[in-house]
Amino acid sequence: MKIIRTEVAVIGAGTAGMTGYRAAKAGGKRTLLIESNVYGTTCARVGCMPSKLLISAADAAHMLQAASGFGVHAGEVRIDGKAVMARVRSERDRFVGFVVESVDGYPAEDKLHGHARFLSPTQLQIDAHTLVEAERFVIATGSTPIVPDEWRAAGERVISSDAVFDWDDLPASVAVAGTGVIGLELGQALHRLGVRVTIFGRGGSVAQLSDPAVLDVARGALLEELDVRFKTKVVNVAPQGDGLAVTSEDANGDQHTEHFSYLLSAVGRRPNVHQLGLENTGLKRDHHGIPVYDKQTMQCGDSAIFIAGDANDERPQLPEAADHGRIAGENAARYPDVKPGLRRTPLAITFSEPQIATMGSGYSALCVTHAGRFAVGQVSFHNQGRSRVMLQNKGLLRVYAEYHTGRFLGAEMIGPRAENLGHLLAWAVQAGLTVAAMLDMPFYHPVVEEGVRTALRDLAHHLENAPAHDGPCVDCTPAP
């Protein structure tokens, strides 16, 4: 068996792993990058980029259909499913190509292909061919979509989001299990491209939202367009003809069976840590089997093992994976002189329409950390000027700030241009701005950002009238 000795071993060549590899190399350490699958990040292959390609096609179709609201009447809209998916796959392959080209530029001696498994805190077994001995490690093994075994047994028409982007054509119908980010983005995109879509949600959750008021508006906005069955679970899936018989059960216990071409499981992702032999590392692990780690340094306990990206299940997003990887790689290189790295203000965006964004501290988190100590301001986009001009006047923005200091803490919203407003507000949180300082900033007219100003003015009013005892968080449990 071949033996390789290195200073840093990075397991996984996704966003976190590649960033960690480069950071460790920049730190002057001999670094080995180990990958068991094909090169190309989750984002490029099956995540943020191909999903936005599909969403962009859906937006184009929707704009044609919505044009009549402006008095503009287009001809018959024809959606060429084969052409839509051909562009999705072609552009997806282009993005993946950039990643593969980058990895191809790494020295051959720095790359090793195969599944890694810890034999001890200092040794990895790579398949049956190589033993790697290293001083420090970065676990960046990513995550895998969850498809329940009982659904998977129904055959190849039960899929995860990974399979969508390999379709040659759009299907006739899709059942989507899950009202999270992936389920809503893909479900709405497919619907707008002419696919019959039903989305099943076990509870009342919508993407990453936790504020009850925003959730209520979000559910209403989605139901205006989509067949979303909240508080309804998929209880059985069976092959039926050229598709599947999907049986669902609502909150009253009533069951319904419908035929769909596919069932898309969008119920979450599972960190890829369970086949790594972590039991041989001596690391303390949580009830999900994930090593307990420091979120500022990515260090697992006081060991020379660091964990980054989706593998640690903190914030499964590309920008976070890159930050995790950089921190983990730098600390692996300098170990034992471990230092906190830059952790940015949380920012999450769902590219549905209306768009959904959360930034900074969300409502449910503040109900724990600032119970009775934070104020809420809000604005509805129903009558917001620019939103009405664009016929995108749906949604609600809720903003939060700390009593006494006036420090802006975060926001949750569904509404127009949320991807842009989310950045604006996340920057304000990270800069430590007060609400008064934010209101001193320039606002042009007419722009959607004027809605932010309205919400901040409402927030400022509530800050000036702090309650003697109770704050806005009447029920400090997470929203359903």
From TrEMBL:
SUPFAM superfamilies: FAD/NAD(P)-binding domain, FAD/NAD-linked reductases, dimerisation (C-terminal) domain
Entry-linked Gene3D superfamilies: 3.30.390.30, FAD/NAD(P)-binding domain (3.50.50.60)
Domain Pyridine nucleotide-disulphide oxidoreductase dimerisation: 349-455
Entries under InterPro entries matching the protein: FAD/NAD-bd_sf, FAD/NAD-binding_dom, FAD/NAD-linked_Rdtase_dimer_sf, Pyr_nuc-diS_OxRdtase, Pyr_nucl-diS_OxRdtase_dimer
Example of a GO MF term: dihydrolipoyl dehydrogenase (NADH) activity
Cofactors that this protein relies on: FAD
The enzyme's E.C. designation: 1.8.1.4
Enzyme class: oxidoreductase
Record keywords: FAD, Flavoprotein, Oxidoreductase
Residue ranges constituting the FAD/NAD(P)-binding domain according to the UniProt record: 7-322
Domain of life from the UniProt record: Bacteria
PANTHER family referenced in this protein's UniProt entry, alphabetically: MERCURIC REDUCTASE, PYRIDINE NUCLEOTIDE-DISULFIDE OXIDOREDUCTASE RCLA-RELATED
Family the UniProt entry places it in: Belongs to the class-I pyridine nucleotide-disulfide oxidoreductase family.
The protein, known as: Dihydrolipoyl dehydrogenase
Native species: Duganella lactea
